[in-house]
Amino acid sequence: MLSISKIAIKKSPLSLSSYFSNTKPRYKLRSHYFDFQATSPTDPRVLDKMLPYMITKQGNAHSKTHMHGWEAEGGVEEARAHVSDLIHADPKEIIFTSGATESNNIAIKGVMNFLNPMKKHVITSQIEHKCVLESCKLLESKGFDVTYLPVQRNGIVDLGELKKAIRPDTGLVSIMGVNNEIGVLQPLKEIGNICRSNKIKFHTDCAQMFGKLPLDVNDMKIDLMSISGHKIYGPKGVGALYVRRRPRVRLLALQSGGGQERGIRSGTLPSPIIVGLGEAARIAKNEMQRDNKRIKKLADKLISQVMEKIPLVQLNGDKEQRYHGCVNLSFAFAEGESLLMNLKDFALSSGSACTSASLEPSYVLRALGVPDEYAHSSLRIGLGRFTTEQEIDFFIETLVTSVERLREMSPLYDMYLEGVDFTKINWSHD
Amino acid sequence: MSLTLSTQNTFSFVQNTTTLLKNHFSKITTKQLAQLKKTTVEEASKFTNYNFREYFKERANDLFDEFISKNETNEELVKQFYDDRLSELEVIKRQVLIGKLYPEQKFVKEN
Questions:
Q1: What's the rounded Cα separation, in Å, for the pair A3 and B5?
Q2: Of the candidates B5, B54, B103, which has its C-beta nearest A388's C-beta?
Q3: Which of A121, A381, B22, B48 would bridge with B99, disulfide CB 3.0–4.6 Å?
């Protein structure tokens, strides 16, 4: 029984939490969450499924001799089945990891270390996630060759360029499904066909796509796929790697240990969060159609109303071939960081979370060929399952007034309205 | 807000669910579906988190309206739907309680 004094009960909920924890809340009100590409809130149904595994069913899933281990193993195997079901794979082909970053590292380094020295070439794209690019950089330092494919203006990889880049010693092609900054969807089926016909392993980082858009590893001829738990309303700290068994994909493990997860990823399985990932995958399978319909409707409303109310707005990335929950807009003559500061009632990002600490424009936008003035003023607006229409309306209203206010203060905007040609100006003083 | 964890309330938590389960083995009527819909929306409205509250309310309304409008005659399917929604209702009740144990500030728009 909780013994709470009468005074504490009469006060607001805020003081009740401070009664227990003695820490004052840092902010008065919570900002509305529009950063679903960075992470997503854990669905209450997922938390509900996880809790028993943190309270009573706490056994090690590898303990084969008692019920505590069997219970945990049961939960893990059920989660494995849910994850594999979503991508039309076999449960034995799913390896649980600590997240998509680890999965990407295992896939790229593991496959190429195994294929060394027969295959020395990797093909990837310029708009991959940092973990893929850094893994490729490490391989380059170890003597491998890496081709970073350029992307077209709409963010989609040119299949002709991919075919031209293939060499006899190409071992792996790594192209992400949905980009985390601009939301474009790559033609995975076509890329899979090209790779299969050239007998090259095809890895795809589907952290932003898994559970949101339909995936079929057999139809798309995918050999390796990275999955992230916290992007699909699951817990943080868990992910998975799909490793094809027929035809077998062989790779060298990065982490040595007791040989768990087919020897590919040793270590005790974190059963509570794996169960969370499984439940998130099960919910995603049931709710995918409904969520996508809602998110598309909200995204279309957002884009159309913003473009109608303010001029000089650009949507980065292909308009149709995309995941609608990731909207990357650039506003001319309104600087990105100042815009973010004006929109403090909303949790947004002006680039991916991993690169938001630096002031450089995002490398993804630079790869698209977005001019610097647009790249500096881009906002990534993430919509998700829990976004409401009321939040979108409030956001549109605040965004329009903020952009108008920033443009009023901008001398460059005044020059633009007067019809000044910026290309003819000599900015430096001699 | 009053956070009561007395035994009386936990008993009524169980009692409400068993009342809904009473007619489980006979045919599920439209009236029972409507009753379950009403209970689910009421429970979902108790979420302290604005986003969860709105999402689960809208979802309950959509799912029930869609199913009821289909006028499903297959008893098995109706029972399956009823069972699924009932177990989801229990999840919602538990999570509402957990949300109240860890209160946070309100969102900007709902204030």
A1: 11
A2: B54
A3: B48
Beta bridge partners of A326: A382
CB count within 10 Å of CB B12 equals 12
Opening angle at CA B62, ends A321 and B108, nearest 5: 75
Question: If you ran DSSP here, which 8-state letter would residue A424 be given?
Answer: G
A378-382 vs A224-228, strand pairing mode: unpaired
pLDDT for A357 equals: 61
CA-to-CA distance for A131 and A143, rounded, in angstroms? Answer: 19
Q: Which residues pair with A123 in a beta bridge?
A: A147, A173
- H or E segment to which residue A378 belongs: strand A378-382
Structure tokens at A198: 């050239």
| Chain A from 279 to 318: CB within 8 A of any B CB | 290
Interface check for A33 against chain B (CB to CB < 8 A): the answer is yes
Q: What is the pLDDT of residues B35-57, one digit of tens each?
A: 999 999 999 999 999 999 999 99
Contacts of A47 in chain B (CB under 8 A): 95, 98
Residue A387 vs residue B110, higher pLDDT: A387
Q: DSSP of A104-128, one letter per residue?
A: HHHHHHHHHHHHTTT--EEEEETTS
Asked if A208 and A384 touch (Cβ cutoff 8 Å), the reply is no
pLDDT tens by residue, A372-389:
778 888 999 999 999 999
Q: Residue B26 is encoded by which pair of tokens?
A: 């006979």
What is the maximum span of chain B, computed from C-alpha positions, in angstroms? 47
pTM of the complete model: 0.89
- Residue A196 class from Cβ within 10 Å (0-12 exposed, 13-18 middle, 19+ buried)? middle
Residue type at position A88: H
ipTM: 0.89
Q: What local confidence, expressed as pLDDT, does residue B19 receive?
A: 54
Q: Got the DSSP string for A199-220?
A: T-EEEEE-TTTTTTS---TTTT
Say which residues have a Cβ less than 8 Å from residue A379's Cβ, sequence separation at least 6: A328, A329, A330, A331, A336, A339, A340, A348, A349, A350
Q: Which residues of A are catalytic?
A: 354
CA-closest candidate to residue B1, choices A28, A14, A27, A29: A14
Integer CA distances (angstroms), A14 to A2, A41, A347, B96, in order: 17, 21, 22, 17
